[in-house]
Automatic annotation (TrEMBL):
Listed Pfam families: CMD
Organism of origin: Mesorhizobium delmotii
Protein name, as recorded: Uncharacterized peroxidase-related enzyme
Residues annotated as transmembrane: none
Carboxymuconolactone decarboxylase-like domain boundaries: 55-133
Keywords for the protein's UniProt record, in alphabetical order: Oxidoreductase, Peroxidase
GO molecular function, one term: peroxiredoxin activity
Length: 196
């Protein structure tokens, strides 16, 4: 389902934190959670197996992720935010995963995902959310009154604004985990743009 050509791994750094090779190789407390992930997704992506090294972290990640999925931001906007934050933080694992999810689940087209990676959107309302999320990620939450006003003027209420902040935080966490661990990418690889 995921993965790509064998030569995509040439020159990629080796993982620094071992990813359990299977559900059975994960800590016992993580195994039921990973089985639930497998049942829902059909596979267990490397990120989940990596995080399973800490059953508490895996449980927390899935609990927050699941709660936010029930929120008021639509799935395409959540994927747009994930793409913007992954690009800002230079996380090729998350960029690869959310490009796959954006295309196959949220039905975002290539032009939209390019705009998202740049901190915007081709959809005017979504653009306000993505710009706001990118500003939060770049400035570590230190936004101005005008930033908050702009997202409100685009039609986002306080609950949705809080959800945007939480999506940024969740994506920053997965970006950092993957960059610290150098998680092997098990999606079609999309590399972050490196500033010149």
């Amino acid at each position: 389902m995921f993965g790509g050509e064998a030569d995509q791994w040439e020159g990629m750094p080796m993982p620094r934190i071992p990813t359990p090779a299977s559900i059975e190789a994960a800590p016992a407390a993580s195994q039921p959670i990973l089985h639930a992930v497998e049942k829902q997704l059909g596979v267990v992506p490397n990120l989940f197996r990596l995080v399973s090294n800490s059953p508490a972290a895996l449980e927390g990640y899935l609990a927050l992720s699941g709660a936010l999925a029930k929120g008021r931001l639509p799935a395409p906007t959540r994927e747009r935010i994930a793409l913007a934050v992954a690009e800002i933080n230079g996380c090729s694992y998350c960029l690869s995963a959310h490009t796959y999810l954006g295309k196959n689940l949220a039905k975002l087209d290539d032009a939209e995902m390019v705009a998202n990676r740049g901190g915007g959107s081709n959809d005017p309302k979504a653009a306000a959310a993505v710009r706001f999320a990118a500003k939060i990620a770049r400035d570590r939450g230190h936004i101005g009154d005008e930033d908050l006003s702009a997202v409100r003027l685009a039609g986002y209420d306080d609950a949705q604004i809080i959800e945007i902040v939480q999506h940024v935080a969740l994506n920053v966490w997965t970006n950092y985990v993957n960059e610290v661990a150098r998680t092997e990418i098990d999606f079609p690889v999309v590399s972050v743009r490196r500033a010149a």
